[in-house]
Amino acid sequence: MTGITLTGRPGPGAGAARPAKAPPLRPQNRQLAVLAVLLLLAVPLPLVLPPAQGAVAVRILIFALMAIGWNVMSGFGGMFSFGHAAFFGLGAYTSAYLLVEHGVSPWIGMLAGMAVAAAVAVVVGFFAFRYRLKGAYFALATFAFAEMLRLVVTTTEFTGKAVGFTVPLIQGSSLWKIQFAADSPAYFWIALALAGLAALVSILFLYSRTGRYVTAIRDDELAAASLGTPVLRYKLVTVALSAAITAVAGTLYTQYYLFVNPDLAFGSSVSIQAIAAVVIGGIGTVWGPVAGAVILGSLSDVTATLLRTPPGFLDFLQGRSGLDVAVYAVLLILIVRLLPKGIVGTLAQRRRR
Amino acid sequence: MSDIGTKAQSPPTPAVRRRLPGGATASVLKRAAVTGGLVAAAIAVALIKSGSGLVVWQSVVTGLLMGGLYGLIAMGLTLIFGVLDIVNFAHGALLAIAMFIAFGVVQGTGLHPYLTLLVAVPALFLIGAAVHRGLLGGTGGASLENQLLITLGLSLLLENGLLMFFGAEPKNVALPGDFQFSLFGAVVPGARLYAFLGAVLIGAALYWMLRRTRFGTAIRAVAANRPGAELVGVNVRRVHTLTFAIGTACAGAAAVLAAPLVTVTPTLGEQFNITAFVVVVLGGMGNVAGALAGGLLIGLVEQLTTIYMGGQSSLLGVFAVFLVVLFLRPQGLFGRRA
Fold this sequence. Notes:
Chain A: The chain crosses the membrane at residues 32-49, 55-73, 106-129, 136-153, 186-207, 236-258. Chain A: Keywords: Cell membrane, Membrane, Transmembrane, Transmembrane helix. The complex is a heterodimer. Chain A is mainly alpha-helical. Chain A has helices at residues 2-7, 12-17, 27-42, 45-48, 51-76, 85-102, 106-130, 135-155, 185-207, 209-219, 221-226, 231-257, 262-266, 268-281, 288-308, 323-338, 342-352; strands at residues 165-166, 259-260. A two-stranded antiparallel sheet of chain A has the order 1-2. In chain A, α5 packs antiparallel against α12, α10 packs across α12 (231-257) and α15 packs antiparallel against α16. In chain A, 48% of the residues are buried. The longest helix of chain B has 32 residues, at 53-84. In chain B, α1 (23-50) runs antiparallel to α2 (53-84), α2 runs parallel beside α6 and α11 crosses α12. Mean pLDDT of chain B is 81; it is low at 5-23. Chain B has 12 helices and 2 strands. Chain B has one domain (52-328): ABC transporter involved in vitamin B12 uptake, BtuC (Orthogonal Bundle). At the A-B interface, α8, α14 and α16 of A face α5, α10 and α12 of B.
C-alpha cells in the first residue's frame, strides 16, 4: 500500500509550489505541433502583407533567429551572455568576406560563419569556464570580448576597416546567391525557413538527453557535477550551438541589407536587441524569443512611422532619433519589474496553476 | 586597503593561501611591485616604439591625469557594486545626464562650470535615490540578471531621451580663464589638472567617510554581512538607497569635472561606462582606493596603447587588460579574496 502512495501523483499543491524543472517528454510533440501551425500560418504572409510590412516581417525573423540563439545559451544554459554581437558579427563577416572577396555562395558562407562562430564560442567559453567566471563577471567578459572583436575588425585591413563590406549586386534573382528583387517574398520564405529550422533545433535540443543535462547544470551545477555529469562538455556544446544559430542571423542580415560594418555587426546594440527580445518574451521558454521578436520588431516599426509623420502633440519629435529605442527601453523595464518571467513565461505559469 | 566587502567570487585557483598577520600588506606590496614592473616594461616598449622620450612622457602625464577621472567615475560604480551587488549599466548614462545639467546651467545662468557642482551633485543624488527606490525596488532582492536588465533599460532610456530632446549635435562646456602649463615638457591643460585634483579630493573624502564615520561603518557592515548588519539594528534598505545615491552623486561630480575636457553628447556615457567597469574589476569590487589606482593604470594603458597601435584602438588595450585580470584575478589586482 505504501508503495502505491509513494509513486502516486503528487497533490495539486505540490506541483504548483515547485515548478517542474526537467520537462516531461510529452511537451516536445506539443511544441513541434505549435511550430508546424505557426509556419503554416506564416508562409502566405508575404502575399497578403503590403511591401513595407513585408520588410518588417523579414526583420522580425532575423531578430527571432538572434533571440533563439541567445536563449539557447542564456535561457536553457543559464550562462548570461552580454556579447552575442560577437557571434552575429562573425556570421555576418565570414559570409560577407567569402562572398565579396572570393565569390563564394552565401549558403556556404553561412555554414562557414556558423563553424567560425561555434569555434570561437568554444574557445572563449572554455576560458571563461576554466576560470569559473559566473554571473556579472561572465556577462562582463562576454561583453568585453564582443567589443574587442568590434575594435579589431574596425582596424583590420582585410575586413574593410570601419567601412565594412557591401555585397555586390547581381543581375536578376538567384537562390544560390540569396539575392532577389527588393520586395520579393523569397527573402521572407528563406528567413522563415531558417528561423523555423532554428526553432526546431532549439526544441529538439531542449528535450534531448543533452538538453536535460544542460538544464540540470543550470539549475544546480554542483549537484549535476557530483552525479558525474561532464559539466564542461555540455556547457561548451550549448555555447557552440547558440553561437552557430546566432551566426545564421548575421549572414541573413548581410544578405538582406546587402551591407555590413563593424557597428552594425559587433555593436553592443546587437547584443542588447537579442537580450531584450528574449527577456520580453520569456527567458528559457521555447516561444519567448519568437514572441519577443515579434513584439519588439513591430513596436520599432510603429515608433519609426510615428516619427516620420508625428501627430500634432509629438511635433517636436519630428526628425529626432531615439524614440524607438526609448520605447523598448521602457518596455524592458516594465516587463522585468512586472512580469519577471516574460510574457510567455508568465502565461505558461498561469496555465500550469 | 579599503575593501568595503569583498564579494564571494569563487577563487580562480583551487589553492587557498593562508593569510598570516602582516601577510596582507606584504602581498599587496608584492602585487604593487609586479604591477609597477609591468607598467615600467610597457613604458620601455613605448619608448622603443616611438623613439621619442617626450611623446612617451606626454602620454604618461595625460594618462595619469585622465586616469584620475576614470577613478572618480569608477568609485561610484564600485561602491554600488560592492555594497548592493548591482552591475549598474546606467552609470554612464547618469554621467551624461549630469553633463547636460552642467551644460544647461552654464548656458542658462552663465555660472562658472565648476559651480554647477552645487546643482549636479544634489540632483544626481536625488535621481540615484529615486532610481533605487522606484526601479530597483529598494533592495538588492531581484536576481542579478534582472537588475542588470533594469539598469540597461534605464541607460537606453536616458540616452535616447537626451537624444530626443537635445539632438545628437555635440556640445561644449567652456572653462572661463582656462590655461595650460608645461610639466618637464609635457603640456598640461588646467582643466585636466583640476579634474585630477578633484578626483583625488573626492576619493579621499569618500575613503574618510567609509572608514571614520558611523554611516561608513554601517555601509561596510551591510556590504560584509547583510543579515548580521540587520541583526544589530542597521537599516539595510536605507543604507542601500543612500549608497546608490552617493555612488550616483560621484558620477555627477565626475561629470562636472570632465565636462570641459570632452564634447558632450547623449551617448558619451557608454565609453566611460565601459572604462569604469574595467577599472572596477581591476581595483576590486567595492574597493574605493583600488578604483583610483585602477583608474590611473587604465589611463596609462589607454595612452600607451595609442602609441603602440595608433589612435583608434586605445580601448583595445583596455579590454585586453580587462580580460586578463578578469580571468586571472577576478577579485581585482588590489582586492582580497573573501
